[in-house]
Description:
Structural class: mainly alpha
Number of strands: 0
Helix content: 55-70%
Domain PSMD12/CSN4-like N-terminal: 2-46
Keywords: Proteasome
Strand content: under 5%
Protein name: 26S proteasome non-ATPase regulatory subunit 12 A-like
InterPro entries: PSMD12-CSN4-like_N
Shape: flat
Organism: Trifolium medium
Largest sheet: none
Amino acid sequence: MRLAGEIAGTRKAAIDILQLCFEAKAWKTLNDQIVVLSKRRGQLKQ
């Protein structure tokens, strides 16, 4: 999705990943995903 530049789909995927980690109380995984997503935010062109 990110490579195709589909902003809405990419946003939904990111939110879903974070929501799943939060609901599972997987705090380390949640933190790791936040770091990964923040590093990749510039790759998506709006």
